[in-house]
Amino acid sequence: MKTLGEVIRRLRKEHNLSQEALAAQYGMSRATISGIENNTIPEVGIRKVEAILNGFGYELTAVARPTKRPTLDLLKKDSFHG
């Protein structure tokens, strides 16, 4: 979420929007936008975040992460054969 808030802040600033203007555009409070950007609200609706990102021409996607980290031996083996 931290990175997501940073992305939304960057996009908002690139579009010269205040937190108040962005909040009004999506029917949210300025405090909600601030909380999203600063990762200070305990929960934010995924639809709210998705709406903001879509408005800036982005989409929210999920990316699988490795279930376990590779060992040093595996990394050495992969780089040797890669």
TrEMBL record:
Q: Which PROSITE patterns match?
A: HTH_CROC1
Where the record annotates domain HTH cro/C1-type, the positions are 8-63
Q: Supply the alphabetized keyword list.
A: DNA-binding
Q: Does the keyword DNA-binding apply?
A: yes
Claim: DNA-binding is one of the keywords in the record: yes
Q: What SMART domains does this protein's entry cite?
A: HTH_XRE
Identify the SUPFAM superfamilies for this entry. lambda repressor-like DNA-binding domains
Concerning InterPro entries, the annotation shows:
Cro/C1-type_HTH, Lambda_DNA-bd_dom_sf, TransReg_Diox_bact_type
Question: A single Pfam family, by name?
Answer: HTH_3
Q: Which domain of life is it from?
A: Bacteria
Q: What is this protein called?
A: Helix-turn-helix transcriptional regulator
Tell me what organism the protein belongs to.
Pseudomonas beijingensis
Q: What is the lineage of its organism?
A: Bacteria, Pseudomonadati, Pseudomonadota, Gammaproteobacteria, Pseudomonadales
